[in-house]
Design a protein that fits this description.
147 residues; mainly beta; Lipocalin; eight-stranded antiparallel barrel; two-stranded antiparallel sheet
Length: 147
């Protein structure tokens, strides 16, 4: 009987913890180009000191394009740095099921910073809703979890 209770407890805890990790925004995410719908990059989202950050790990470039570009238009300390390895999401804080931050996301193509909000899709935890906005104007992308 004790073995059965232990086994059932183990199964329940395994199920709970596996679902918790599936519900996390942490991990690798594939971004898509809004116009071409082709994969654009892989971003690693991680936590540091209780805040959320996202670093470009890989770029999907066409043959003949610079495979390891430098961001000449990026602001501040990011100017003239390699895009691969760059934090494009910085300092987001938790707000319920969302993560938010002023100037929290960078578009390395234009060098512009946007306020940011991101959250897991309610129906599919393998989809991340990423919104960049200025005042009432916004654009939301859907990023796909990389397994």
């Amino acid at each position: 009987m004790k073995k059965t209770i232990f086994f059932i407890s183990f199964l329940v805890l395994t199920f709970v913890f596996s679902n918790l990790s599936a519900q996390s925004v942490l991990g690798k995410w594939k971004t898509m180009d809004d116009e071409t719908k082709k994969p654009k990059s892989i971003v690693l989202i991680y936590k540091k000191d209780g805040k959320l950050y996202g670093k470009i790990e890989k770029l999907f470039k066409e043959p003949g394009e610079d495979q390891d570009p430098i961001c000449e238009v990026c602001p501040g300390s990011r100017k003239n740095k390699k895009v691969i390895g760059m934090d494009v999401i910085t300092g987001l804080t938790a707000s319920g099921k969302e993560w938010k931050g002023d100037n929290g996301i960078l578009d390395p193509k234009t060098g512009k910073l946007y306020d940011c909000k991101l959250w897991l899709d309610e129906k599919d935890s393998d989809k991340l809703q990423v919104r960049g906005y200025i005042a009432f104007f916004y654009r939301t992308q859907v990023w796909q979890r990389v397994k």
